[in-house]
Design brief:
The structure is a homodimer.
Chain A lengths: L7 H11 L4 H7 L4 H29 L1 E6 L8 H11 L8 H11 L4 E2 L2 E2 L3 E5 L5 E3 L1
Antiparallel strand pairs in A: 1-4, 2-3, 4-5
Helix pairs in contact in A: 1-3, 2-3
The structure holds a DNA duplex.
DNA sequence: AGGTGGTTAAGGGAAAGTGTTTAAGTTTAT
DNA sequence: ATAAACTTAAACACTTTCCCTTAACCACCT
């Protein structure tokens, strides 16, 4: 069975980083350029984000598809829309308006720019009213 | 930024599976062989395991210092030493003797020459028994 | 003996990921 | 303003993953 997502190199950099070393210091220790350390660290952070996203998907499997936030939609209007769709199914979203907006933006920062939805976002809901994204 | 670990194909299979379809049925729907569906599903499950492992690593990032391999130590005696130290802390090293020696040498080739430790090497251990170096 | 559901192995072509260098850019702190 | 810390982009060799096919194998079940 395969290891985790992070390469040995990436783990190494993260550990040194955790200790508070600069990229330059790490570069000297592992004998490469600081630019490379930066790249490796960035890749590591991305891999961690991908791991999170992957497990998010599992929740969408348990939940049912609720609706789609269409490209161009005002983010501030999303909660009202989501609440309405949930009510149609007799479900109560377990986030208030503010929390929901935050959750939307936090879950997929690159899919929202300012108040705008940049690309279609699939919304899923579980029986207990938790919200997930596809 | 890239999406999650799972490919579209893998998600597709997982969704059908969740609905209770057999691999044969899915194979017909997505126009391929059941062997392929099996392979894709297996890859998906592996990817999910990798995602979990990756996030596990984050929690163990702040591992504790285990011991120091002192300069001049015979590399072949290192594993026994490390095992003993780990046991003192109630931790089980997740590498057998051979794997551990390889990991030691691979991690920092310049710190070992032949069977000898050239300079002190700090050993760290995480809660899941993974070993890394300072 | 068939039928069904699942798994494995070998192999191939396309695609994606990794580590690296070089070279440029930005932010931040002294 | 200078240096240090950090980020980004492009290009490269190399390795790995992904999806696919074919062919075989195992465990049930009636």
């Amino acid at each position: 069975m395969k290891q985790g997502l992070l390469t040995d190199r990436q783990k190494e950099v993260l550990r040194y980083r955790k200790k508070g070393l600069t990229q330059q210091q790490i570069a000297e220790i592992i004998h490469t350029s600081k630019a490379n350390v930066c790249t490796i660290e960035k890749a590591a952070v991305e891999n961690i984000a991908r791991a999170r996203e992957t497990l998010e998907f599992l929740y969408t499997l348990d939940g049912t598809h609720l609706c789609t936030l269409q490209q161009g939609l005002d983010l501030l209007k999303a909660p009202e829309f989501i609440y309405a769709e949930a009510e149609k199914r007799g479900l109560k979203v377990k986030y208030d308006t503010i929390s929901l907006i935050n959750r939307l933006r936090d879950a997929n920062p690159e899919r929202f720019s300012g108040r705008q939805v940049r690309e279609d976002v699939e919304i899923y809901i579980s029986k207990d009213g938790d919200i997930y994204f596809g």
